[in-house]
Amino acid sequence: MRLPTEDEKPFSSNVKEKEAIELIREAVDRGINYIDTAWPYHSGESEKIVGKALEDGYREKVKIATKFSWPYVENELDVSLEDRDDWYFLFDEQLDRLKTDKIDFYLLHSLDKSKWSRYKESGIFDWLEELREAGKIDYIGFSFHDDLDLFKEIVDYYEWDFCQIQYNYVDLEHQAGREGLEYASDKGLGVIVMEPLRGGELAKKLPNEVKEILDADNSKQAVELALKWLWNQPGVSLVLSGMSNLRQVRQNIEIAESYKKDEITEEELSSLEKARKKYLAISPVDCTGCNYCMPCPNEINIPRVFELYNKSEVHGEFEKQKKKYIKLPEKEKPKNCVSCGECKTKCPQDIDIPEKMEEITRYFNKEKQVK
C-alpha cells in the first residue's frame, strides 16, 4: 500500500491522512475488498490509517492482510524472535492499530534465507496455529524475496494457505518467478502478486524504447497491458496494486471492470515479451522503490540515488539527472557509504547496495560538474 504523502516520497511517514482515508473508502465503495498493509509501511503509519479508514462499517466489507514483520520492527519495538510474549505483544498492537478483533490474512513478512532459518528454529508455526484456533486469524501465508530453490523449500515445509510473490511481465525469472507461481499453485496455495507494475516503473516511467514496442502512448495503456497480462496468468489468485491517489484508484478499477477473461491477444503477448527483454537490457539497477533499505544509518537517500541512476541510463538523461544528483544534500549522496551492509540485508531484490553506491559515485563524477 502506497498512500498519498505530504512530501510525495513513497512510504514516507508524512501521510495525508484525510486524503488516504478518502482513497481507501472510495476503493471499497467501488468494489475493492482486500487491503494489504504491514507495520513498517509508511514508517509505522499504514496500519493506523487503514484502521481509521475501516471504521463506520467499512471493516465488514473487506479482508485485511498484514504481516509479522520481524526483523523490521525488532529495534523499534524491542521484539525478539526468541520470546513468544513479544509475538503476542506485536500481534495485539496490530489488532489495536487496525481497530479489529481478527486479521483475515496474516503473513510472515519478506522471507529470505536468513529470516527463514531463524523462523524454522523459533516455533512460530505452533503460535500461528494457536492464533487461528482462537479465531484471531483466518489464513496463514508468507511474502517472499529470494531465489526459486528457497521458495520451493518454504512452500513444502508447512501447510500454507497462500503466498505473496513479486511477479509481472518483466520478472518471469526473478525470485520465485513463473516457475514458483506454478509450483505453489499446483500445491494448492493461493498466489497473491505484489509489484505488478514494479513500483510504477511499468507505468509512468517506461523507457521510450519499451513504449514503442508496446505502442502505449500513455501510462493508462501501459498499466492496462501489465494488469491484463497478470489476470490472464493461470494460478494468480489476486493482484495487489499500490495506489497513492484517487486518479490511480479510479483508473485501476475502470481497467478491472472492463477486463474480460482471456481477452489479451497473441499480438499483445508477443509485444510484452519483446518489451521485457528490452527493459531488462537497459535497466542498471533492479530497484522497485520499496524503501525497505531505509533509513540508512549514514542518511544516504538510497532509493533516490537509484532513481537518478536508472533514469539517466534508461532514458538517456545523464546531464539532466546529474544536475539533480548534484543538488542532493551532501549527506544523502552515495559517497558517504561505509559499506556497513545494513541495507543489503534488508533489500528484497538482493541488490549489493554498497557496491552500487560506489558505482554510482564514480558514474556521476565521470564528467565535469554541470553548472
UniProtKB/TrEMBL annotation:
This is Aldo/keto reductase family protein. SUPFAM superfamilies: alpha-helical ferredoxin, NAD(P)-linked oxidoreductase. It comes from Methanohalarchaeum thermophilum. GO terms for molecular function: iron-sulfur cluster binding; oxidoreductase activity. Residues 327-356 form the 4Fe-4S ferredoxin-type domain. It holds the Pfam family Fer4_9.
